[in-house]
Structure formats: C-alpha cells, structure tokens
Predict the structure.
Amino acid sequence: MRDRLGGAKLIVVSNREPYIHTYEGDEIQCMRPASGLTTALDPVMRACGGVWVAHGSGTADRATVDERDRVAVPPEEPSYTLRRVWLTKEEEQGYYYGFSNEALWPLCHIAYTRPRFDSGHWQQYRRVNQKFADAILDEVDDEPAVVFVQDYHFALLPRMLKNARDDLVVMQFWHIPWPNREVFRVCPWQDEILDGLLGNDLLAFHIQYHCNNFLDTVDRTIEAKVDMERFCVTRGGRTTAIRPFPISIDPDLVVSWLPPDLQNAELNIRKRLGLRDERILVGVDRVDYTKGIPERFAAVDRLLTLHPELKGTFTFLQVGAPSRVHIPTYRQLNEELDALVEAVNWRHGQGSWRPIVFINEHYGPEQIYALYRIAAGCVVSSVHDGMNLVAKEFVAAREDLRGVLVLS
C-alpha cells in the first residue's frame, strides 16, 4: 500500500481514536479500545505511517500531546502520528450522541428503532465535521495527500475537504449498512448528506447490496448522473466510484495477542468468573440494540426449557462493552439485559451454576482473544449489522482448529 500512495501523505480520520490515554491513580495508562475499526486500520497505519485524526476522549489525552495536539503511537514502537481533535460537551452531545447515534445509526440499521431528528444536533454535526476538516487541512498543509475517512460520523467531511483542496484524494468507508430509499427519505437533511458523501473520489460499503441501495437513493433524491453499470455517480462534474470492500482483520496480529500460557489463562478466567468445568460459550459485543443480545439470552432460556438435561453443562458468557449510555434507548437496553440475565439465572440456575454470565465492561484484546481460545463456541447474532469482525477474530484465534462459530 505504501507503494500505491506514491509519496502522498496518508491521513486516516475516525471518531474513535486507536489509542486512549487515561489516568489510573497518578499514573497514565495507554490502552487500545476494543473496536473493529481500529483492529482493521491500526496495522495499515503501522505499515504505512502517516497521521490518524480522531476525537481525543481519554482522561489523560491532553497530558500526552504536544503543542499541535499530536502524539506518536503505538507507544511501544511509534510508527505513526495520532492527531487529537477536542470537542466540547455540547459538541459531543449533539454530533455524536445526538445526530450520529440517535438519527443516522437507527436510520441505517433496520432494527425498528425510530430515529430522532433534531435541528440542534444537526448543527453540531455540521460544526464538528468542519472542525475535523480544519484539523486535516492543517496536517496536510500543501502536501499531496490521501484522506481515508471512516464511517457515518463524517458524512459532510468529504465535500468540505474538496471545497478547500480540490487536489486531495478523498475516500470513505461507510462501516454500517445503507438502507433503501424509502427508509432514507425520512431524514430531513438527506440532500446535504448525499452531497457530502459525493465529495469522495471513492465511497465504499461492505457489500454490493449496500452499494445498490446508495445508488438508488442518490438516483431518486438529488440531481446527479447515476451509472448502474460502472457503479459511479457524477455530480457537478465530479465522479464518485461506489464499491464494495468487505473489511478484513490481521490474523497474525490476533494470534500475537493470545496469552502464551493458555492453560493458566483459562484457570484464571474460570476462577475470576466463578466457573467450574462446564463448557464456555461466548458473545462479544458493544451493548447495542442491533447486536441481538436479548435474543441470545432468550435462546439460552428456550434451550434449557426444552432440554433441562443441559443444565450445568455450559455457561453463556456475554461480554457487553458499555456503549452510548447517555442515550435513553441504550440505558433502557442495559436495564433489559440485567433483568433478562436475572430471570434466566433464577429460572434455570442450580446451586452456584449460572447459565448466563454478563460482563458489562470493556475488555482489552488480550482478554477477549483469551476467551475466544478457551471457548467451545462463539455466537454472533446481530439483528442488522455491517461486517461484524467478531466472527473473523474468533476463527483467527482458533489456531487449534477447534471451537464452533454460530453466525446468523
């Protein structure tokens, strides 16, 4: 990929940063968030170098940057620069929790959660997209650059960049589904969003179906020439290619995170969670209504009702990283999950054995991959999703060619 850049500077842009600095007591710790996006792109940045522009959200992030809000990462072997963008509480509330995750997220996921459109949130979304554009242009200066924008948080950013620097190569990967035209048309700012995305030279989705939905949406919404044979859109004299690129993982990186002593790791996990010698089934997700976690818990309940002889033979271990807890829908989901776990465990539990263990906290890669390796199976059952990387990571972690992936 470095050769293909042809000497151009690589700029990656995302809301979530690949490394977060936090205070633990008086010490500053650096951690990698459990994120499919960072899992996929951190190896690229390590190999190619460049700048990753992201929202600085850690409690110690400001204490670790230089006068230009930059820090070299990864800490153990610096190979690229992380440029942090600071947001006010109002900006974060409106842009991230508001428009991104109460409007765009439910709009694009057919999980039957009603999107909430708020003009104040929309204004903050525009403001933050411009703030990121300013930071990127500062990093680019007058150099040739390739800007790789990530996800639905930055639908307006490509057009802002092109308006400022027409010579920039701008690409964007939309990590979530794109709905059909009938669904998308309920968005009051559909024209601005589509125009922003068509500032890209290349706009990528996970699968061809999402590309087709996007092309149909453009064709029936704004003035543009849509070429369904070449999969491109021309608007204002500029052409945007629309392509499917299923996102991947780095299997070698997954293996490198596995604990060297798996037997000891398993003993520690079982002791910490109060598990005996029963089989472990795992699910690893953010707590989100698109991930199908309540349905999994209901499936465990149904299984044990139909087959009581299985009681005590397995434990379903769900790692559910807290997510977007400022949004009422997500708080309600957490309460629902706690109630489901309590009900299923009360109904089917025997002595100290619990059919479901729900870990509602963030786990690092080492902890997650250790769970993958010791589990008899992994369940991925999203209601609607982009390209869930848990399935790929579980398979990559199983060098022993054992374990079962249950994928819906």
The longest strand covers residues 279-286. Residues 2-244 form a domain with the Rossmann fold fold (CATH 3.40.50.2000). The chain has a mean pLDDT of 94.
